[in-house]
From TrEMBL:
<protein>
    <submittedName>
        <fullName>Protein S100-A3</fullName>
    </submittedName>
</protein>
<dbReference type="InterPro" id="IPR034325">
    <property type="entry name" value="S-100_dom"/>
</dbReference>
<feature type="domain" description="S100/CaBP-9k-type calcium binding subdomain">
    <location>
        <begin position="7"/>
        <end position="49"/>
    </location>
</feature>
<dbReference type="InterPro" id="IPR013787">
    <property type="entry name" value="S100_Ca-bd_sub"/>
</dbReference>
<dbReference type="InterPro" id="IPR011992">
    <property type="entry name" value="EF-hand-dom_pair"/>
</dbReference>
<dbReference type="Pfam" id="PF01023">
    <property type="entry name" value="S_100"/>
</dbReference>
Amino acid sequence: MRMTRPLEQAVAAIVCTFQEYAGRCGDKYKICQSELKELLQKELPTWTPTEFRECDYNKFMSVLDTNKDCEVDFGEYPPCPQ
């Protein structure tokens, strides 16, 4: 039996967490802004300052939402510079 590598475990945790929050507002493969806000607040509390304002979440969402459909899926990440 093969041991799961730490990176595999980390990716699985990210995917499972995404899936846990996705779909509450509609499409189960995408996260809307309220789902993203809840995910950040609950799953990354030390990374999300308590003084985050709604406009901060709006700005964060606008960076991730490259196709501007008000939802984020795994395909919407900024391309890596080459």
